[in-house]
């Protein structure tokens, strides 16, 4: 019985150390990033959050008592999605102008920042092409 408790306590402390190691590593990497690079990581997340809010808000569209949730959710999703696209454009300009790192990394951060804007442009092009045909 004591041996089982000892093994359990030892394995629990090992699991705690294992689970904290990647988080400490992640925090140190995030601290080394500049503010523009942190925004670059946040922008696609905000855009995806807007899409998810829009999807879940649609469920309240037909209910008259809960229509306000649909209305509020659609407004929030539009704010998140269009805000992320505008923020993507501004952040991409700031990356190309202000970020002082080597060229391949700069291209990576630029493309990641412009990903929401590029996604909207590509989807609009596809929709336009389907409507023309």
Write the topology of this structure:
Layout: H1 2-32, H2 35-57, H3 67-98, H4 103-113, H5 115-132
Overview of the structural elements:
- The protein has helices at residues 2-32, 35-57, 67-98, 103-113, 115-132.
- The protein has 133 residues and is mostly helical.
- Helix 2 runs antiparallel to helix 3.
- The N and C termini lie far apart (75 Å).
- Mean pLDDT is 84; it is low at 1-6.
In short:
This protein has 133 residues and is mostly helical. The chain has helices at residues 2-32, 35-57, 67-98, 103-113, 115-132. 15% of the residues are buried.
Keywords summarizing the entry:
133 residues, 0% strand, mainly alpha, single chain
Order of helices and strands: HHHHH
| Unreliable spans | 1-6
3D shape = flat
Q: Quick one: biggest sheet?
A: none
């Amino acid at each position: 019985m004591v041996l089982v408790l000892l093994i359990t306590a030892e394995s629990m402390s090992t699991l705690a150390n294992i689970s904290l190691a990647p988080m400490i590593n992640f925090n140190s990497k995030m601290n080394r990033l500049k503010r523009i690079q942190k925004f670059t990581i946040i922008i696609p997340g905000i855009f995806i959050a807007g899409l998810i809010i829009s999807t879940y808000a649609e469920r309240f569209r037909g209910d008259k008592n809960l229509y306000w949730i649909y209305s509020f959710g659609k407004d929030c999703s539009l704010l998140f999605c269009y805000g992320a696209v505008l923020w993507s454009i501004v952040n991409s300009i700031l990356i190309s102008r202000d970020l002082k790192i080597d060229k391949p990394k700069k291209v990576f951060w630029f493309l990641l920042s412009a990903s929401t804007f590029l996604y909207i442009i590509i989807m609009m092009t596809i929709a336009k092409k389907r409507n023309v045909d």
